[in-house]
Amino acid sequence: MQTENIKEETLDKVTDAELDRLGITHRTHLSAASKRALQWPKIGNDWFIEFNDLEPLKGDLAYEEGVCRRDPSAVIKVDDTYYVWYSKSVGPTQGFAGNIDEEKVFPWDRCDVWYATSKDGYIWKEQGIAVARGEQGAYDDRSVFTAEIMVYEGKYYLSYQTVKSPYTVRVKNQVGLAWAERPEGPWTKLPEPILSPADNGIWKGEEDNRFAVEKKGDFDSHKVHDPCILPFKGKFYLYYKGEQMGEEITFGGRQIRHGVAIAEHPLGPYVKSPYNPISNSGHEICVWPYNGGIASLITTDGPEKNTIQWAPDGINFEIVASIQNPPHAIGLNRTVDTEKNPTEILRWGLTHIYNNDDYQSILRFSSYHKTAHTAIGEKAI
Ligand code: AAL
């Protein structure tokens, strides 16, 4: 009998009706797929969603040649106005071959964090800089980018990535934090980063090459990216993406993982969880509270890319759905009631696309549940 992974007593409890529903004819001849089907949790269809085509934004956030706007934060609503923060830079990207002291090495180099407002989520008015790069010599003097917003007890917290000059290939990236009483600012920057890469990797040789290592170190030994702070269980969970020194390609994607650092207060100190990494896949962080736990959309890289995962404790994530073509760098719509449905927060929000290698723009995504499959004139029951 091919039922090694399923306990006899479990199989005995499976009713004929359940086997009929799953289309399993022979109780004594279970393929690997049938065994997995018998162990599916009863999670329903709610986590499984489809994404519509992206829609361009209007007003100041419409695509603009020569300008890069990317990595939108979550969208929040204050009174009747939506707010979003994002990375903005101008001019083309030359990469690392040129003069790194004068040029841009990435589209997210030489950015400041800007913000825009909207009444309907489609037409946006750019309001100006929220958080600017630091003074020369500061840890954030080269670029501040990929911001995320948290509203907590009437205060606003922006976390974002930081790079210090010179922007070499091996430069470490950190995470900074600024807070304000109002979404318009003024923003007060913390003097030091709230998160830094692990310092237990060892580069090999002096060449500015991030793939050459004696020792890779922790999953986040090179860069900490894509911060997103959520209030959770009376504490503050800072989810982030780690890049490792000596990054490899695995399962058709980059070796990218996620971690979490936890603080008692929104301003920190943030302490990395000993359970890190908490995801072996993914790219930009996209997390939201649901049913007493945390849900996470995992995109782009790793063997578990294109899945939604959920963790009752915000740390031990299990896959709950597979998702086709999720948008990248999602800015979630934090204005909704996340308990209404596990994926309510993904009904619409913001994302970015590469219009070309130099310039990116912010777009709107939306999603829906597929609840029936009928031909024209055919009725579902
Ligand atoms: C993004 C994010 C981070 C990276 C770059 C800008 O999609 O993962 O923000 O640094 O790409």
Brief digest:
The protein has 381 residues and is mainly beta. Helix content is 5%, strand content 37%.
Keywords:
381 residues; mainly beta; Tachylectin-2, Chain A; 2 domains; 6-stranded mixed β-sheet; globular; binds 3,6-anhydro-alpha-L-galactopyranose
Helices and strands in order, then pairings?
Elements lengths: L7 H6 L2 H7 L9 H7 L11 E2 L3 E2 L1 E2 L7 E4 L5 E3 L2 E10 L21 E7 L4 E9 L11 E10 L2 E9 L10 E7 L7 E2 L12 E2 L9 E3 L7 E10 L2 E9 L5 E2 L2 E2 L1 E8 L7 E2 L14 E4 L2 E6 L8 E5 L6 E5 L25 E7 L5 E9 L13
Parallel strand pairs: 3-8
Antiparallel strand pairs: 1-26, 2-26, 4-6, 5-6, 6-7, 7-8, 9-10, 10-11, 11-12, 13-14, 15-16, 16-19, 17-18, 19-20, 21-22, 22-23, 23-24, 25-26
The structure holds 3,6-anhydro-alpha-L-galactopyranose.
CATH superfamily of the largest domain: Glycosyl hydrolase domain, family 43
Number of strands: 26
Strand content: 35-45%
Average pLDDT level: 95
Number of helices: 3
Per the CATH scheme, the topology name of the largest domain is: Tachylectin-2, Chain A
* Rg of Cα set: 23 Å
Largest sheet: 6 strands, mixed
CATH class of the largest domain: Mainly Beta
Overall tally of structural domains: 2
Shape: globular
